[in-house]
Design goal:
The protein is mainly α. Helices cover 79% and strands 0% of the residues. It contains 10 helices and no strands. Helix 2 packs antiparallel against helix 3 and helix 4 runs parallel beside helix 6.
């Protein structure tokens, strides 16, 4: 097994465990580790498929609460944005993409830590379909780059004051749709190679084991403390990627 594959397998296990434990951000957690070792163009296929499988495995719980009328603008925007993300992955340098994802990590982790520290409940507000579609478009672009479609919609839902169950019923189906579309785009763009397929196959047991252990650990480890540590590590890793 090559060094790149070992790094990928180990990272997928850690990210799946952390995601299963904390309940968020598999791709961001994986990118915070992988982008110190491997270029985004090499990691994108495995991260997109890995995230798709993890989200698909837990979608049944939110199906009764799904509202297509609310979800539709996000999906339409995401469908339009995903090809731009694939194009970015194809023409932009690995260094620039890494720095951009580092900035996303800083924004996401910094915003979430600030919300926890301030302990302020967001003021609920509603928006028309156009702003929601804009967030979906940006999420689609990030999804095409490497499956990071959930970060901006998650922050948007928090700003709108959505309950956790409401947000999950919107954004988990959105993430699954974007990951599926991104996977097709990565295949069409030539990113899904024989090496990518081998990496993915090697990572499947690590993904399953990590997610299962993370869910089991959820009842044994203080979840909020784990989340704070994880967000702090994401913030520091994002800063290091930007620098």
């Amino acid at each position: 097994m090559t060094t790149a594959m070992l790094v990928m397998v180990a990272t997928c296990f850690v990210a799946a465990f952390a995601s299963g434990m904390a309940g968020f951000a598999f791709n961001l957690i994986a990118a915070s580790i992988l982008f110190h070792w491997l270029p985004p163009q090499q990691t994108a296929p495995v991260l997109v498929i890995g995230s798709f499988l993890i989200q698909l495995g837990t979608i049944r719980a939110v199906l009764p609460a799904m509202r297509w009328a609310v979800l539709r603008p996000y999906v339409i925007g995401g469908v339009l944005g995903t090809p731009f993300g694939i194009l970015v992955l194809k023409v932009v340098s690995a260094e620039a993409i890494t720095a951009g994802i580092g900035a996303l990590l800083v924004v996401y982790a910094g915003y979430t830590l600030a919300r926890i520290a301030l302990k302020r409940a967001p003021h609920a507000f509603t928006t028309g379909p156009l702003p929601d579609a804009g967030i979906g478009f940006a999420g689609g672009v990030l999804g095409g780059i490497g499956g990071f479609s959930g970060a901006l919609p998650a922050m948007w839902g928090d700003l709108k004051g959505l309950r956790k169950d409401e947000a999950r019923a919107i954004f988990q189906p959105f993430i699954i749709a974007m990951q599926a579309l991104a996977a097709v785009g990565l295949v069409a763009g030539g990113f899904f190679t024989a090496e990518s397929a081998m990496m993915l196959l090697a990572c499947l047991p690590a993904l399953a084991a990590g997610a299962w252990l993370g869910v089991r650990a959820y009842g044994l480890i203080p979840a909020e403390g784990f989340r704070l540590v994880l967000l702090t590590l994401l913030l520091l890793s994002g800063l290091s990627l930007v620098i």
